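Below is our example:

___
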Amino acid sequence: MEARIIVLCVVMSATLAVCPASVHAQAQQWGQGIELPRAFGIGVTVYNQTQEYDIQRLEVGLPGLDPSVLSDLQVDNDTSSYHLRLDYWLLPFLNVFALGGHIDGTTTVDLAGIDIGLPVPLSNLTVEYQGTVYGAGAVLAGGWDDWFVTVEYNYTRTHLDVATSSVKAWVAMPVIGYRVKGGAIWAGGMYQDTQEHHEGTFELPYVGEVPFDVDLTQKTSWSYLVGGTAAFSEHWLMILQGGFGPRNLAQVTMEYRF
């Protein structure tokens, strides 16, 4: 699945907090001896995200079913990813990166409230998927003294084990932060635009397999972000990030810079 991630992501730049104030100050005071972080970075990230979806279109193969009753159903998504990220400070204020890894996801559509005249309620429509996630993006950085501002943009796609499923997403994350001894802290927001499509069948009591075709997107685009980083040496650091509000997320990254 894709980026919700990730996705996408599903997610704050793993490198922006290495030495953000130094990078931003260097961009403003070029040549005045302010140390830049090491240019290359490689990081391993574990990421989980949950959020509600809106149904853009849902077709269920039940004769006589009124499509209007399908428009306001509860839809929940849970996505986890494990990915490798490579980045490079192309300019003192511009970091570019690429990522790739594995993703697992579950999307559940609550059909229990739909009455189709059967003695038992409809079972939930649950789509489980896994596959490869890949993408790229950039971080713009600027700052003053120990304060910094960054904006990250990334786009991800997935190659799933379910041929009739697809997900693509793009994410923007503006944050403001403060450098502390041995690391940094920040707060901001995440804007996520996800497009998810699934086709298949689900089991219905007394009826058997029922075909479905559904297009989904995020229920709310914006959510809150907080995070921090701790540097263990000039090469190693750990990044923690969490999100809350309409979208909940947790991220842990271990990174090596060289």
Q: What stands out?
A: The first helix runs from residue 20 to 28. The helical segments are 20-28. Residues 1-34 have pLDDT under 50 and may be disordered.
